[in-house]
Amino acid sequence: GYDHIATGLVDANTHLIVDGVGFERIIQAVEGKDSIFDIESYKPYDELGHSPQIIEAAKIAHRVFTDSTFGGLGNRNTNRKTTIKKVMRHLDSLDSSELEKLLLVNAQVYSDIYPELLGGVDKTIEEIEDYRKRRKWTGEKNLMSGLKVKGMKN
Predict the structure, then answer these.
(1) Is the dihedral of CA 101, 111, 120, 83 positive or negative?
(2) Residue 15 — left, alpha, or beta (φ > 0 → left; ψ -120 to 50 → alpha)?
(3) Distance (Å, rounded) from C-alpha 91 to C-alpha 127?
(4) Do 151 and 80 contact (CB within 8 A), yes or no?
(5) pLDDT per position as a tens digit, 41-91
(6) 102 CB neighbour count, 10 Å cutoff
(7) Would you place residue 137 in the very low, low, confident or very high pLDDT band (cuts 50, 70, 90)?
């Protein structure tokens, strides 16, 4: 078993778990790269030809809607709904086919760390498509009322 210490990290003598935020920065340092977008694990994303903003937005949406251990949305000044709305807007330029390709690449890149992402591709696409429909038909004011995200009250 894992012996947790006060900081929330796992005993370094057994395992070290790095969760999502900052993971790419650690790889960047290990690989000696100037940017997280230059690391080896970003090469599959580059082949798709999307901007870093779209890639990051898709990664966040994928983690949130797959209901993985991601808990880093927002900060003291930005609530989850506002953050998710901004993330979703970055994905407006992608049709379902391009979105699926991007999410499948994301699932593959993180398969060792977050194996549940592969099973979350369809749910993520469904949530994004539902968001787009609500935005089109109800306008921005009531947009977030149907969005289901763990830990977020509507």
Answers:
(1) negative
(2) beta
(3) 12
(4) yes
(5) 899 999 999 998 899 899 988 988 886 444 444 444 456 667 777 888 889
(6) 25
(7) low
DSSP code per residue over 64-84 = HHHT-S-----BTTB-HHHHH
* Nearest CA among 74, 92, 65, 55 for reference residue 147: 65
**Which of 144, 143, 128 shows the shortest CA–CA distance to 59?**
128
Q: Is 20 left (phi over 0), alpha (psi -120 to 50) or beta?
A: left
pLDDT number for residue 78: 55
CA–CA separation, 9 and 16 (whole Å): 7
- How many residues are present in the chain? 154
Entry pTM = 0.67
Q: Of 15, 104, 1, 21, whose CA–CA distance to 58 is shortest?
A: 104
